[in-house]
Sequence to fold (344 residues):
Amino acid sequence: MVGVPNLTRADAQAALRNPLAFVAARWTPDPRTVRRAALAALVMSVVIVVTGGAVRLTGSGLGCPTWPKCTEDSLTNTSAMGVHGVIEFGNRLLTYVLCAAVGWAIVAARSQKPFRRSLTRLGWAQFWVVMGNAVLGGIVVLVGLNPYTVAAHFLLSTALITVAAVMWQRTREGDAAPRPLVVEPVRQLAWALVAVAGLLVAVGTVVTGAGPHAGDSSEVPRMDVPWEAVTRLHSVLAWVVVTLTFALWFTLRAVDAPSGARDRTRDLFLVLLSQGVVGYVQYFTHLPELLVGAHMLGSCLVWIAVVRVPLALRERPEATVTVVPAAPAAQVYDATSASIAGPR
Fold:
């Protein structure tokens, strides 16, 4: 067995000054561990959205009526608060699990050799988005589930998913400058797809904010927009995204793009079709809670698939380090005359 080295006073002080550097100096994760850490952060960013949807759909949004405590006198939920308090406080606890997953991704990225600053920055970006969204979640409770703050809360969660998905992709790439795999018009089509899909997600928050699921059993204000009209707009945008996805897939085949790019676009198309089926069924069945929750999960999966499409249209190989050969050592000659002596 390998003995564990004793922790000296100097080691303890170094760990307190810079714990990440202390861990990185003593642990080198393999690339698979870093990829798993990034994937765990991505999965948890989706889980927190789904559980947040469960809070809303069960009417538990004010199960803990204040923040950061659950009540004025208790940090946790009490038995008098019933199941709504359990659901809301449970969702708050999952934020700590999300923080742990993001923290693992940061530590793994920081400890990887060679050090990749871009990867570590993506991990820290997730951390700050989580902190910002935690504060925004508290504001949502304090303002009584104002639908505009709820929509902002979901959009910030989507931003977290975006950064987590990019980090997961970057763990399988190098740090060299991105090299496009398709021509510029094809890349522009892909970014148009991303833009319309982002608009689709944003309009989806308006549909929810104007719809019947207010998140609490009490009277909660809704967005003052015609729900049927904004729902139709959401549906039209969804069909535009489907059309752009099919057009991009067809174009990628026409230009003989790499299989990875075609596969990511095909995956997006299949996820969109599944999400569309769920969306239409929930609409015609008057928005049952279970289907609305499935639609929220589908929204996350659609956005991850969207983000992966432009990332598949370029490659980032390992960065190459140019090693300049050292100059040959100077030869020393014995002085044979009074004219020159020493190295030549």
